[in-house]
Amino acid sequence: MRDTIFALSSGNPPAGVAIVRISGSGVRFGLETLVGQIPPARMATFCDIKDKNQLRLDRGLVLFFPAPHSFTGEDVAELHIHGSRASVAAVLMALTDLDGFRLAEPGEFTRQAFENGKLDLTEVEGLSDLIRAETESQRRQALLQADGVLRSLYEGWARRLTHARAMIEAELDFSDEDDIPGSVSDQIWKDMGLLLAEIRSHLECASAAEVVRDGYRIALIGPPNAGKSSLLNYLSKRDVAIVSDIPGTTRDVVEVRLDIAGYLVVLQDTAGLRESSDQIEIEGIRRSLIAAEDADLVLELHEFGVPGRVVPSGVNERIEIVTKVDCLDEPFTADDAAFGISTLTGAGIDKLLEAISERLENLAPSGEMGLPTRARHVDLLQDCVTAIEVAMKSAEAPIEVRSEYLRHAANSMGRITGMVDVEDLLGVVFSEFCVGK
Ligand SMILES: Nc1nc2c(ncn2[C@@H]2O[C@H](COP(=O)(O)OP(=O)(O)OP(=O)(O)O)[C@@H](O)[C@H]2O)c(=O)[nH]1
Ligand SMILES: [K+]
Ligand SMILES: [Mg+2]
């Protein structure tokens, strides 16, 4: 018999309420022992919670979700207790004392749900992203995926591939008879052509989805004393990086995570670019250049009249910014550069943030579309595209061979949702979870 698992599923104590979740075939026994009854299904019931020696530990709401109508698909119970360290520890200890009960591994409840067919792998990943979501765009994207938007898209595509193979094989079986019209075959390859176009346009959105999930990288680049660290501190509203009037203050890349317009932005402050003979500064500058290359957007900062050293080619987008405009005798005008800012007075920073927000909002297609959010999805979709392309191009090949390519394509699709052969992937997918989920 499998172990019955339990864990604190709510956040770290102390808190107003803590939720201890239990899942597995021992749940009824556990409830009888700890609360002296099995509460009616899905009805919050106020109970005393006792250990197996009838010592009262706490009182709280108890919920029972009989299998299979539960998150994991097993019998599940939730104990809503007081959220103190001591209450939680006492209840967890009482559960440990029950035969066949043990603390859940990270992600183990979700793994039971996957194994019982409650969730597919993309929904599992969506749930993991939802639990970690820091910004509105991450929450929206993760919720769509947890709700099964990608699952139904990929399952629909897999069904079309399977249908095409079934038609091809039917044609094969009846190939000596005259009554199989050639148009069936035409129809199949026409649909495969449409499918290919759909998967390709879905893949085009992958980088937008990745930016939403992992953050939009902005690097602050420019000569020493341009005011890069001052801008980082201003935008993060914290004293993160050292600011001084000594050129060459920043050596390491300093990174902060910001929420701009509901998007996660990873903002990087870097060492000022200049010729140097100092080994540490040279290394810092090397890191600045790497940050510039890896960034989605580079902010090129320089004081008025000081040329901003040009960022190396290969950088996607850049915005030139004149800093310390409070020091100018004449008011800064748009003719001088697109943006003029002062971290002393705050001038121009709203306008800069607006420009960044606009770029972020243009990233992702609007609407309730599911996007491929992980390299795993992209790799398998690309395998699928290649297999369909080969099947379509091999018009001269025996029909069995073409059908085999389509089987390969359907297989790749099935690996995304976890319908086929994914034992090797499970460790990776579930390792993202915390205990209690
Ligand atoms: N008046 C004025 N001074 C500023 C402004 N921004 C930065 N400074 C000053 O300029 C000097 C350099 O600022 P930093 O933020 O350290 O410049 P940096 O680009 O990070 O310099 P390095 O790390 O050495 O490359 C400091 O003395 C800041 O106080 C501004 O908007 N107005
Ligand atoms: K400085
Ligand atoms: Mg600095």
What does it look like?
By secondary structure, the protein is α/β, with parallel strands linked by helices. The chain has 14 helices and 12 strands. It has 3 domains: 101 residues, Probable tRNA modification gtpase trme, domain 1 (Gyrase A, domain 2), CATH 3.30.1360; 145 residues, Four Helix Bundle (Hemerythrin (Met), subunit A) (Up-down Bundle); 149 residues, 3-Layer(aba) Sandwich (Rossmann fold). It has a 6-stranded mixed sheet with strand order 3-4-5-2-1-6. Strands 8-9-7-10-11-12 form a 6-stranded mixed sheet, with helices on both faces. It starts with a strand and ends in a 7-residue tail after the last helix. The mean pLDDT is 92. The protein binds guanosine-5'-triphosphate, potassium ion (K) and magnesium ion. Potassium ion binds next to loops. This is tRNA modification GTPase MnmE. Its cofactor is K(+). Exhibits a very high intrinsic GTPase hydrolysis rate. Involved in the addition of a carboxymethylaminomethyl (cmnm) group at the wobble position (U34) of certain tRNAs, forming tRNA-cmnm(5)s(2)U34. Belongs to the TRAFAC class TrmE-Era-EngA-EngB-Septin-like GTPase superfamily. TrmE GTPase family.
In brief:
The protein has 14 helices and 12 strands. The protein is α/β, with parallel strands linked by helices.
How much of the sequence lies in strands comes to 15-25%
**Radius of gyration computed on alpha carbons:** 29 Å
Oligomer: single chain
Kindly state the number of beta strands: 12
Return the average pLDDT rounded to an integer. 92
In this entry the ligands are: guanosine-5'-triphosphate, potassium ion, magnesium ion
* CATH topology name of the largest domain: Rossmann fold
- Specify the overall morphology: flat
Through-space gap between termini: 22 Å
Total number of domains: 3
Tell me the number of helical segments per DSSP (H or I, 4 or more residues long).
14
The main sheet comes to: 6 strands, mixed
Record the strand order, biggest sheet. 3-4-5-2-1-6
CATH architectural arrangement of the largest domain: 3-Layer(aba) Sandwich
Amount of helix: 40-55%
List segments where confidence is low: pLDDT < 50 over at least 5 consecutive residues. none
